[in-house]
Amino acid sequence: MFGVIICTLLLLGNFTQAMLTPDMSKRVFLDIFFKDEKKTKEISDKARSTQMAIYPFMICILAPCFYFFFVGPFIDKKRLGDNTAYITVAAFIVGYVCLSKRLF
Q1: Which whole number is the average pLDDT over 56-83?
Q2: Structural domain count of the chain
């Protein structure tokens, strides 16, 4: 049930983001970037601050949830063989480190 709630919240968040994204085919941002350097800097700073605000959520909350719901079920050895648990956990750790390096 908890997984359904998280999935619904992520779906709503992505849907909201998709609805609020402006139509890029009308060259709105391109015109702003070429005409107003101050506005371009302001947009860049806001985007950077938004990304920095999301990183702790991704590292501290989302990654453990992914481990619990996606890695946990594959740890039992019945699914893919004797080394399934080791391979799954190792792949998660590598992915987690790569995500952390990419974010910072």
Answers
A1: 76
A2: 1
